[in-house]
Design brief:
Chain lengths: 179, 449
């Protein structure tokens, strides 16, 4: 089925459009907005973005595959990124990853069987003073221990507020509403 | 001498709701902008030059000099692109400014734009930093409502808009030309220089790319005057001025972001600000300013008997007792970088540390230049072999060889930024790699018994 943005999201795009001298500059912002709605970037989304910005689908796909925040396959209701880079690993990031794998029953790069969590590793998330840390959807949790992690994961599991399949979007509706 | 602890850049950090315009104005916010407008663009540029403000993003280029390179044209606008794509491993200072004092950033952008006659500022923020983006966007909206932005800034004949632009997860986009490509909606691959961005930048137009902290410092420079600001530094005499944000992470008791004058020593950063290395341990290695800066050891001393040598004043002292400045750190064979140190104590396997970093660079290489794309992947692969004990003597030579063949052979600095720390670790800790032949190295983050 063809992909269309909801009117509310389309309005964000239209507000941004005149702020740039080219339409192509909207590629990343528009992909973020689409991903917030769709959960990941499908071929239909790529086609939609290309059409909206008068680009080829190859241009858009090239961008999608370059950046780690664009999900190219479906993800769980929550996405957990564990920072694996040096400052965090020095402070025990490996234990955090291992404990998450055990807890969620899936490896890094996979989604838990119940579809609740996708577990990913991130490169340095600029929270080095608070390592080890994770990013859960759009929130940072720092100075973690495997015990603290339990509470965070359980909290996310219980939080069912209709935000299904919403990967965070830095410029989407949620970011705007929660200012 | 205890470390001075000025609260200039961080003065609002502990204020409740410090990110709101009410809190910022209550602490004297946006007064510097009024003063700047009264001074006029040329005078602002002079003060920034006099401030000896070295870029806070890593390269340490003098901001006032960079501004003077802007080649304005009559047939197109000029832009400022703010680099807030903080992603250098170990670096987490700009995030604190955006989250805790976004209006200081916005005020800095406005003054810089006024000084350079720029009417659009693009602030490129890492996509992961959702809270930073929210706070900056809110700050921009509040500033617009108050007349600090818009068609007539503070009723002057000066029009300005600030656009907060989110990245999407790519370390390379912190490289200025890659940032510009990404802003234009392309893959974040660096461009060849020249032309430099000040001549051909965003959308083909002249563009000044500055680090976020650099611009957030500008209101203070306007407020107190460039020379007075520069003199806050211990390295004022070698044109490295002011105060800045330092970060310290890894095996210290109080990791975090601290404000201090330019030119404190690594030892002061670690002991006085960072609370010292973990109890019962000693420092093994320090990465002074983000992962691309070669590692330093406490036991190495400065050898500069010649009186004309720039480091002569510290002859015989430990590398950790040399002031942290752009030129002093270069003199030690490393770089000041982002001023955010990673401290590793005696439990750390340098083989594992190198492995961690090389995996990072292999993942983040944009793939445009062969030496970096293939070289970083090879360095990671070889480090894996040393880490799991399957490496041979030949691998040690290959590792050095691969690193040497990246140096200087790529479009941007990412390749060098991966090869330099690798060569640095190999130079100082070769014995650990030799010991790791046939024997797996201990994992990081495992506390020694």
């Amino acid at each position: 089925m063809a992909f269309e943005l909801t009117p509310e999201r389309l309005a964000i795009f239209e507000e941004l459009l005149p702020k740039y001298p080219t339409k192509q500059a909207l590629t990343i912002p528009l992909l973020h907005i689409c991903q917030e709605q769709q959960g990941h970037i499908t071929d239909e989304v790529i086609g939609y973005v290309a059409k909206k910005l008068s680009l080829s689908t190859a241009d858009v796909k090239g961008v999608v595959t370059f950046y780690t925040l664009f999900q190219q396959k479906p993800v769980g209701r929550n996405v957990v990124w564990v920072c694996r880079t040096l400052s965090c690993e020095l402070m025990g990031a490996r234990d955090i990853t291992r404990s998450l794998e055990k807890k969620l029953g899936c490896h890094v790069g996979e989604t838990s069987a119940d579809g609740e969590f996708t577990l990913l590793e991130a490169e340095c998330l600029a929270a080095c003073g608070g390592g080890p840390m994770i990013q859960l959807n759009d929130e940072y949790f720092e100075n973690l221990t495997p015990e603290k992690l339990d509470a965070i994961i359980e909290g996310a599991r219980r939080k069912k507020d209709g935000r299904c399949a919403v990967t965070f979007s830095p410029i989407g509706i949620r970011a705007r509403k929660e200012l | 001498m205890p470390v001075e602890n000025p609260r200039i850049l961080t003065k609002n950090y502990d204020t409740p709701n410090s990110w709101t315009i009410a809190a910022y104005e209550a602490s004297g916010g946006y007064q510097a902008l009024r003063k700047a407008i009264a001074m006029g663009p040329a005078a602002i540029r002079e003060e920034v030059k006099a401030a000896n403000l070295r870029g806070r993003g890593g390269a340490g280029f003098a901001a006032g000099v960079k501004w003077s390179f802007l080649k304005t044209r009559t047939d197109m606008p000029s832009y400022i692109a703010v680099n807030a794509d903080e992603g250098e491993p170990g670096t987490f200072k700009d995030r604190t400014l955006m989250e805790k004092d976004p209006h200081r950033c916005v005020e800095g952008f406005i003054i810089a734009a006024y000084a350079l006659d720029v009417h659009t500022v693009y602030c490129y923020v890492r996509g992961e930093l959702v809270l930073s983006i929210k706070r900056l966007e809110q700050a921009v909206r509040e500033a617009r409502a108050k007349g600090y932005l818009g068609d007539r800034v503070l009723d002057q004949d000066f029009k300005l808009d600030i656009v907060v632009h989110s990245g999407a997860g790519a370390y390379i986009c912190g490289e200025e030309t890659s940032l510009l490509n990404s802003l234009e909606g392309l893959r974040g691959e660096p461009r060849l220089k020249p032309p430099f961005p000040a001549v051909v930048g965003a959308f083909g137009a002249p563009t000044i790319v500055n680090n976020l902290e650099t611009l957030a410092t500008v209101p203070t420079i306007v407020e107190m005057g460039g020379d007075a600001f520069s003199k806050l530094s211990r390295l004022h005499h070698i044109k490295d001025g002011g105060v800045r944000l330092y970060g310290v992470s890894g095996h210290v008791n109080r990791p975090g972001v601290y404000e201090a004058p330019v030119g404190i020593t690594l030892r002061e950063l670690i002991d006085d600000l960072g609370g010292g290395v973990r109890t019962g341990h000693t420092i093994k290695a320090v990465i002074p300013g983000g992962s691309s800066t070669p590692v330093l050891r406490e036991s190495d001393t400065v050898h500069a008997p010649d009186e004309k040598h720039p480091l002569h004043a510290w002859h015989g002292k430990s590398h950790l007792d040399v002031p942290m400045g752009v030129d002093t750190m270069r003199g030690l064979g490393t770089m000041l970088g982002t001023c955010c140190a990673i401290v590793m104590d005696d439990t750390t396997s340098m083989v594992r540390a190198a492995e961690n970093l090389m995996v990072f660079y292999a993942h983040e290489s944009c793939g445009q230049c062969t030496p970096c794309r293939e070289g970083c992947a090879w360095m990671a692969k070889l480090c894996h072999k040393f880490a799991d004990g399957t490496a041979t003597q030949v691998d040690l030579d290959t590792l050095t060889d691969v690193a040497n063949n990246i140096m200087g052979n790529t479009i941007c600095a990412l390749g060098d930024g991966a090869a330099m720390p690798m060569l640095g670790i190999l130079k100082l800790f070769r014995n650990e790699f030799e010991a790791a032949i046939g024997k797996p190295a201990p994992h990081l983050g495992v506390r020694a018994a």
